Amino acid sequence: MISCRGLTKCFGERTVVGGLDLEVAAGEFLVLIGASGSGKTTTLKMLNRLIEPTAGEIRIDGEDVRKDAPHLLRRRIGYGAQRAGLFPHMDVAENIAVTPRLLDWPPERIGARVDALLEQVHLDPGRFRHAAVRDLSGGEQQRVSLARALAAEPQVLLLDEPFGALDPVTRDALQQALLSLARELSLTVVFVTHDMSEALQLADRIAFLESGRLERIGAPAELLREPGSERVAEFLRAPRRQAARVEGLLEGRAL
Fold first, then answer.
1. Fewer CB near the last or first residue (10 Å), C or N of the chain?
2. Which has the closest alpha carbon to 39: 220, 208, 234, 168?
């Protein structure tokens, strides 16, 4: 579904992404992970031309992304960021309907799509359809943002640390909702995070970026068995340490 060849982005003399080759299969949930400055967000934004590559080629469903104007490309690719980015002067339904309206969907189809998506992200349409953005909790705003990203029935969904600012309970609920939606709708998802625990829970494969280059890629179990480098191993040790601490606390209580 997504193919990158020699993908490169330079800002002045600084190379942020250098010669990246990456393939994402249709229906795959790929997580990009790496430290701050590793190039993962820049890579994600090049896929829908929010950032234009310096060099290289990107194809989505076999088509060069340069075929259409950037705004037309983005109308068929779902996108969501860490901060929900909802329009404060619009209610929930209007926020979700932004792209379908640009695509000239009839009002009846838009209304049905909005209600269906609210149900899929576990928000009651009767209560939330016309709610003001300012009245929503952080978790509710993030759910609406996810619904908006899915509104135009995209095949590809790009998400940039969408749950990073949420509390653990809300974050877990939204992770599970996203996984369910991705499977139900056969979405191809590219998801950026710096949290290895999140990557291990969500990904079909994890692509580890280091200084703008692909350090390692593989299924979670494969990376746990064979990290391939000390840098990847260091990231993988963090969730193991956290799990060990929790187990230690439970054992202490039992005593």
1. C
2. 208
Q: How far apart are CA 221 and CA 81, in angstroms?
A: 27
Q: What is the DSSP string of 197-236?
A: HHHHHH-SEEEEEETTEEEEEE-HHHHHH---SHHHHHHH
Please state whether the predicted TM-score (pTM) of the whole model is above 0.85: yes
Percentage with pLDDT > 70 across the chain: 98
Alpha-carbon distance of 61 to 122, in angstroms, equals: 30
Decide if 39 contacts 17 (C-beta within 8 A).
yes
For CA atoms 181, 219, 229, 197, the dihedral sign is positive
- Which two three-digit tokens encode residue 93? 């339904």
Q: Angle 21-22-27 (CA atoms, 0-180°, nearest 5)?
A: 165
Amino acid (1-letter code) at residue 109: R
Rounded to the nearest 5°, which phi and psi values hold at 68? Answer: -110, 165
For residues 229 and 216, the answer to whether their CB atoms sit within 8 Å is: yes
SS3 at position 7: strand
Euclidean distance between CA atoms 95 and 147, whole angstroms: 9
Residues 161-187 have pLDDT tens digits of: 888 777 888 888 888 889 988 998 899
Look at residues 31, 25, 68, 32 and name the one whose alpha carbon lies nearest to residue 49: 68
What are residue 56's phi and psi, to 5 degrees?
100, 180
Tell me which residue has tokens 């291990």. Answer: 200
Please report, for residues 119, 195, 204, the alpha-carbon distance to residue 224 in angstroms, rounded to integers and kept in the order given: 36, 15, 13
**Cβ atoms of residues 197 and 238 within 8 Å:** yes
